[in-house]
């Protein structure tokens, strides 16, 4: 599990949202953590994970996109050493398929199918960084769904 106190707090918000269905409470907790870490100027690992989580609790797809873009920008600043130090059980490369999947989904919802396809291609190109575990299967399933939706649209 995480050894980083901020990641533990972010995980509490994720649990509020996914396990307890308390989307507003999760969003409020994420907003507090965002202030605590200094927003986009914070530790790139915190910014990436928090923005990725915050995107999931947005009601407006444009806000979701903004948070997903923040997460991707922060991921570009991450190092393997920082990820390992925090106890995150994957490589930096393993973060990208999910980040690109979420961006692609936002662009699809906004009707920008070309950008959605670009994001899907980036995600698919990085899929080898994922393990054959529940997380990897979740992301692969999401990519398959997005590909089907884009093919139909």
Brief descriptors of the model:
single chain; 153 residues; 8 helices; 71% helix; 0% strand
What would you note in describing this structure?
With 153 residues, the chain is mostly helical. It is 71% helix and 0% strand. The protein is built from eight helices and no strands. It has helices at 5-18, 23-37, 44-55, 61-75, 80-85, 96-109, 113-125, 134-152.
Describe the secondary structure blueprint for this structure.
Layout: H1 5-18, H2 23-37, H3 44-55, H4 61-75, H5 80-85, H6 96-109, H7 113-125, H8 134-152
Helix pairs in contact: 1-2, 1-3, 2-3, 3-4, 4-6, 6-7, 6-8, 7-8
Short description:
This protein is mainly α. The chain is built from 8 helices and no strands. The termini are far apart.
